[in-house]
Amino acid sequence: MTTDQFNECVDLHADGVYRFILHNLKDEEQSRDIVQDAFEKMWMNVSNISADKSKSYLFTTAYHTMLDKIRRGKKQGAWDEVKEHQYSDQGNNYSGLKQILKDALSRLPEIQRTVIMLRDYEGYSYEEIGEITSLNESQVKVYIYRARTAMKEFIGKIENVI
């Protein structure tokens, strides 16, 4: 990969990688640090990366860097627990669908949240998600199915939300 191709990769994918990490960590500063680390690692290996694989390499590196940071954080102390909400009890007056989806997404286990975000938010194929997360395609499909089922249970009937 050339310097120009690296710069183009930064321009094209920096926002997407940041959004992906931010959705998982919910901390802007840590997310920026992880994205910066991922680009630094990519720069250190720029001669070994082909331009057509740069996006996949970048997301994979950011994902693994995020996991390392989470693991280090767990050793230092527990993260705040997500408050449980029962939106279906609020009747038909609630219109914050985006917030409901965010809350449902935040309740998922880390791997399920990651594959859902890569598939539904970033538009990756099952095969690409498998490369990024080191899972096979069948595992990716199972995690996506389980995540969607869990989100559906959390949200309840759509009539209760709209």
Overview of the molecule:
By secondary structure, the chain is mostly helical. The protein has 2 domains: 3-76, Rna Polymerase Sigma Factor, Chain: A (Orthogonal Bundle); 87-161, Orthogonal Bundle (Arc Repressor Mutant, subunit A). The protein has helices at 3-25, 28-44, 54-76, 97-106, 110-121, 126-133, 137-155, 158-161. Helix 6 crosses helix 7 (137-155). The chain is globular. The N and C termini lie far apart (49 Å).
Write a brief structural summary:
The protein has 162 residues and is mainly α.
As residue ranges, the low-confidence spans are 76-94
The total count of helices amounts to: 8
| Rg value | 18 Å
CATH architecture of the largest domain: Orthogonal Bundle
The CATH class of the largest domain is identified as Mainly Alpha
Q: First CA to last CA: what distance?
A: 49 Å
- The oligomerization state is single chain
Mean pLDDT: 80
* CATH topology group of the largest domain: Arc Repressor Mutant, subunit A
Shape: globular
Report the count of strand segments.
Answer: 0
Strand content: under 5%
Q: Structural class from helices and strands?
A: mainly alpha
- Work out the helicity level: over 70%
User: What's the number of domains?
Assistant: 2
CATH superfamily of the largest domain: Winged helix-like DNA-binding domain superfamily/Winged helix DNA-binding domain
- How is the main sheet built? none
The succession of helices and strands, N to C, reads HHHHHHHH
